[in-house]
């Protein structure tokens, strides 16, 4: 696992950083910043953290186990991408950050406990939309999913200051 050229090492190296990055970005911010989104049908930083925590329970680890199982049917169940809205109504951002961090640590420990050789990484599951996908693809998608949502949070936080940057808006691509 210590070999930096190892795919799993690289995946785990990044996945383990996401909870810290989220905490550094969001912990201690006022609720208005945390719960502001970009408009109708968009997500706030609070929503994104709730979504990430939800998928730590219902997506990544389950799909990994399906791929690694001996079952003949390796079809993934569809994911409810908006279930977190109802589940997190009464929660505070610190609760979500703690929940996400705990779940992510458990999932990383689970990954580390597996013997994920190159042959194992080529094992397949069946995505409900895409068809056959490999474990390697799933793991890298997990990393890019994190990056996508980190980008989203940063964009939402930046856009909250759009009116205040004055003429510098021309140089700030995140605001366009």
TrEMBL record:
<dbReference type="Pfam" id="PF12867">
    <property type="entry name" value="DinB_2"/>
</dbReference>
<feature type="domain" description="DinB-like">
    <location>
        <begin position="16"/>
        <end position="153"/>
    </location>
</feature>
<dbReference type="InterPro" id="IPR024775">
    <property type="entry name" value="DinB-like"/>
</dbReference>
<protein>
    <submittedName>
        <fullName>DinB family protein</fullName>
    </submittedName>
</protein>
<dbReference type="InterPro" id="IPR034660">
    <property type="entry name" value="DinB/YfiT-like"/>
</dbReference>
């Amino acid at each position: 696992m210590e070999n930096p050229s190892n795919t799993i090492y690289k995946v785990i190296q990044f996945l383990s950083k996401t909870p810290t990055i989220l905490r550094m970005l969001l912990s201690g911010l006022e609720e208005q910043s945390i719960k502001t989104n970009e408009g109708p049908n968009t997500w706030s930083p609070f929503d994104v953290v709730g979504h990430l925590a939800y998928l730590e329970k219902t997506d990544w680890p389950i799909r990994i186990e399906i791929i690694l199982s001996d079952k003949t049917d390796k079809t993934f169940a569809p994911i409810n991408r908006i279930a977190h809205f109802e589940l997190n109504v009464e929660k505070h951002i610190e609760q979500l950050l703690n929940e996400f961090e705990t779940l992510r640590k458990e999932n990383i420990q689970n990954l580390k406990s597996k013997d994920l050789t190159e042959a194992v990484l080529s094992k397949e599951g069946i995505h409900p939309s895409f068809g056959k996908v490999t474990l390697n693809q799933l793991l890298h998608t997990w990393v890019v999913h994190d990056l996508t949502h980190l980008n989203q949070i940063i964009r939402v936080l930046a856009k909250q200051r759009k009116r205040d940057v004055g003429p510098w808006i021309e140089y700030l691509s995140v605001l366009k």
